[in-house]
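Minutes, project check-in
Item: structure for the 170-residue chain
Input as provided by the requester:
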Amino acid sequence: MSVMASDQGALSRRAEPPMIVDLRAATANDADALAEVFLRSRKELVACAPLAHPDDDVRQWIRGRLIPTGHVTVATVDDQVVGFIAAATKDCGWIEHLYLLPVWIDRGIGTRLLEHAQRQLASPIRLHTFQANERARRFYERRGFRAIAFGDGSRNEEKCPDVLYEWRAP
């Protein structure tokens, strides 16, 4: 699926042409790129919650467990993987992961990935993020997600306080 995303903020003031963002199902060939997105995003944007596993374990998990679920969508620009979303259906729809390379933040790609998942999953849709991750919290709240529970971190691997969000279709 191809979508147009216009640059926002300072980037929109430059005379740059709109970029083409392609969304597609992740394949085994994307494992290294997804690991790079995940690791860079977590280390640079979510420093409030240090990784619970070494980088090599994360790479193995992405290759051997995350991608094989079949519920991972990648966002590419000029054939470069710049972000991904992993969704699941359990007791309701779940966004399990949504990450972008830091240089691709604020360009509409995260919104496109989230909207894609919202079309695929039944309402309600839930997700967790860390309480200290204010940027992510603002992102989800601006898109209609509401905080429904706050945790002390005892139920996540990082042991960092988290917040459970929920979105319901209008």
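Outcome recorded: The first strand starts at residue 2 and ends at 5.
No further action items on this chain.
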